[in-house]
Design a protein that fits this description.
43 strands, eight-stranded mixed β-sheet, 3 domains, mainly beta
Length: 737
């Protein structure tokens, strides 16, 4: 049981009114459930909130839950498998950056039978009772090996054969004794032990298993008969094919875009296909990788592995305590499903989005939920020295501390798995503690991501600006036509993770005459794919450039969700400046700074932007480190796509050396390159431009902008400028109508 007494998640992040919501809860004893409309950004001051009448509100039984975490393959033996055999062999090609990532890691396991596993990085054969029958030497990391356990009548033979003989050692361990006969029984679990409770899903399945492996697996198999050192060496060299063995179970794990990511293709005669469970990574390099093809679609045989991890989570799989339709009369907005008992509470945020034929407000907020998923349960504070990153006080909240080391929360895309490999996938079907209203992010001691975007939601309510709210997923799936009714589309504070479909939709909306307000920083940065929508699972590949906490392995840049390259949009010719006029310039967590008007701002044609604003500079205040320009900041750059006719209305300056220019712009390490105190490109720009068909773009280029909106009861320059632009966009499109 987690140290958080009540944990919950909904089956989706967004719903249309009247759609069924399924609520999953981990708690001891009954919980009370109700629905609220959330407009306040402060969970302790909910004066703008309102209760919602919901027929499903009430008390429900809940119980502690087991989480489906840790990926593996599960499959059956071929019907031709012998009922008993004098000899039996289990094997697989395996690779890990850390074969000792966990004390016990199962590689190939038979139900109620022997297991080939790793113990502290050493291959071992273990019987059904858990007795270790044979153990080999510690395996070399970063090297492919064929590992085979051969169970014979008079010996247990454990063979380890490296694919690269220069970097690894061939080992054979023989333990004499009286063994067998063997009765192989399925299912076979690969990459874990004892797979069970498997439930099919949209992009694979969820299920339970123990002792998960952290590494790559290729060509796992079970065969009748013994496989000795000579035969294993011949398989490694290619002189003997796996199909030449008396296979009773084997799987081809090569993958092409468009194939079912949860299918493990059976190789043995008449054997049913296997199932990949809990979201292992596909499209990863195998033992045959040459580097000549960097896309798994072009050379599937070189990408015939899966990368399994004990921390993969595709769908937590908790029991559903409530399945009920949301009220039919809900307006579009941000709501909270309140789940509470005497021990504690959780408020699960959901977004109610307009149906295609619903009446619309003129203003739309797009919550950047793909970014929320990228940062979901991020734990960068664990093991880092925060004083090296910020001059602000660092406070790690209880909910953050609770998920460290607890795999049931899942990982963020900023974390690494136990073997050091990066997290490629993030699922919405789990409790996400840092996607809660009022959450204070440890690095800025203020709202970030969802809790930061609630500053914007509250500001709109306080300024009397009626709006609809949607998420990235609606933009991704429904496109520009869904956005067309709006006079102003407003981004969240950090739309960093963006799909191609989203970029196309926003560009088409803008170029069709729409008004786009980018009120954030580091937007439209990482190429993001949607692997599935039920559950919602997003995918990234970090590539080899950009601000990153881990780096993709060579050859692993192509997304399995799209079949297209990942990495930065900038390196696919779609830098953020092309859409919004500004793009990621620098990041840092020293004090945020205000904006200073440019010379161009004095032109009377921009008076409508600055109307009613007396302060200069603008935004020397705010919840996010005391200013409106901070955290991650963007600037204009014509060479990267800022239109030449775009005007820079204001810029920040004076950032400390805690702010450093983005890595993709640093071609060489030079002495005294410095940060904000030396580098003039470390600043944020406020930019405005128009498109030929009457579209408009207003960009502020700072995550901290929304944190300044509520200052002095919304009576401030940042608030006034934002309102001036929103109302002008609405008025101009009303005139066009």
């Amino acid at each position: 049981m987690s140290t958080l007494p009540v944990r919950a998640y909904a089956d989706a992040l967004s719903y249309e009114r009247g759609r069924e919501l399924r609520l999953h809860v981990d708690a001891t004893g009954p919980v009370d459930v109700r629905l609220i409309r959330m407009r306040s950004s402060d969970a302790a001051d909910t004066t703008l909130d309102s209760d919602v009448a919901w027929a499903a509100a009430g008390t429900y039984d809940a119980s502690p839950q087991e989480t489906c975490v840790g990926s593996f393959l599960i499959g059956e033996l071929a019907p031709t498998a012998p009922t008993d055999s004098s000899a039996l062999s289990l094997g697989a090609f395996v690779w890990s950056a850390d074969h000792a990532a966990a004390p016990v890691q199962a590689l190939v396991s038979l139900a109620n039978g022997p297991t080939l596993e790793l113990r502290d990085g050493c291959p071992a054969v273990v019987d059904a009772a858990g007795t270790v029958l044979a153990t080999g030497p510690r395996m070399a990391d970063h090297v492919w090996h064929l590992v085979v356990a051969s169970l014979e009548p008079d010996a247990i033979r454990l063979t380890v054969t490296p694919v690269d003989r220069v970097r690894g050692r061939t080992e054979e361990v023989v333990v004499a004794g009286a063994f067998g006969p063997f009765t192989p029984r399925g299912p076979v679990t690969v990459g874990a032990r004892g797979g069970h409770g498997v439930v099919p899903g949209e992009n694979g399945a969820r299920g339970l298993a123990a002792d998960g492996f952290n590494g790559k697996v290729e060509d796992p198999f079970v065969c009748a008969g013994a496989v000795g050192a000579d035969q294993a060496a011949a398989v490694v060299s290619g002189d003997v094919e796996l199909s030449d063995l008396d296979l009773i179970a084997a799987w081809d794990l090569s993958f092409r875009h468009g194939e079912d990511p949860g299918l493990a293709a059976a190789v043995a005669a008449r054997q049913p296909h296997g199932t990949l469970v809990n979201g292992p990574a596909r499209g990863v390099t195998g033992r045959r990788f040459t580097g000549r093809a960097l896309d798994f679609n072009d050379a599937p045989g070189e990408y015939a592995a899966v990368h399994v991890h004990s921390t993969d989570l595709n769908d937590a799989g908790w029991d559903c305590v409530l399945a009920a339709a949301l009220p039919e009369d809900l307006e579009s907005g941000v709501y909270g499903v309140v789940v509470e008992n005497a021990d504690g509470s959780d408020v699960v945020p959901i977004t109610v989005v307009p149906r295609a034929d619903d009446p619309r407000n003129k203003v739309l907020v797009v919550l950047p939920t793909f970014t929320y998923l990228a940062y979901a349960n991020e734990a960068l504070f664990n093991g880092l020295d925060p004083t090296a990153m910020t001059d602000q006080e660092v406070v790690v909240e209880t909910e953050d501390q609770a998920h460290v080391g607890d795999a049931s929360f899942g990982l963020s895309m900023y974390d690494t798995h136990p073997d050091g490999s990066g997290v490629l996938l993030s699922s919405a079907r789990r409790q996400i503690v840092n996607m809660r209203r009022g959450y204070r992010m440890w690095l800025v001691d203020a709202g970030r991501s969802f809790s930061s975007d609630m500053y914007l939601v509250e500001w709109l309510a306080r300024r009397g600006i009626a709006c609809d709210v949607v998420t990235d997923l609606e933009v991704h799936e429904r496109g520009a036509a869904y956005l067309a009714p709006y006079a102003a589309v407003i981004s969240g504070s950090h739309p960093e993770y963006t799909s191609e479909e989203m970029l196309d939709a926003l560009t088409d909306y803008r170029d069709g005459g729409g008004g786009l307000l980018y009120l954030g920083g580091n937007g439209w940065y990482w190429v993001t794919g949607v692997l599935s929508t039920a559950p919602l699972v997003t995918e990234i590949r970090r590539g080899h450039a950009g601000i990153r906490c881990w780096e993709s392995y060579p050859g692993e840049l192509t997304l399995m969700s799209t079949g297209l390259p990942g990495g930065l949009w900038r390196h696919r010719g779609r830098a953020p400046q092309v859409l919004s006029g500004v793009g990621f310039a620098a990041q840092g967590w020293g004090r945020s700074e205000p904006y200073h008007r440019s010379d161009a701002a004095a032109d009377p044609q921009w008076a409508w932007v600055f109307e009613g604003i007396d302060e200069d500079p603008i935004g020397a205040y705010g919840a996010v480190m005391g200013g409106a320009a901070g955290d991650e900041i963007d600037r204009a750059d014509v060479s990267l796509g800022t239109p030449e006719h775009a005007v820079v209305l204001a810029s920040s300056r004076g950032h400390s050396n805690f702010y450093q220019r983005v890595l993709e712009e640093i071609g060489m390490n030079l002495p005294d390159h410095g940060g904000g105190e030396q580098d003039p490109e470390v600043h944020a720009d406020i930019v405005y431009f128009r498109t030929p068909e009457g579209g408009e773009v207003f960009s502020t280029g700072s995550i901290a902008w929304s944190g300044a909106l509520l200052e002095n009861g919304t009576e401030n320059g940042v608030s006034r400028m934002t309102e001036n632009v929103v109302r002008a966009f609405v008025d101009r499109r009303a005139d066009d109508d």
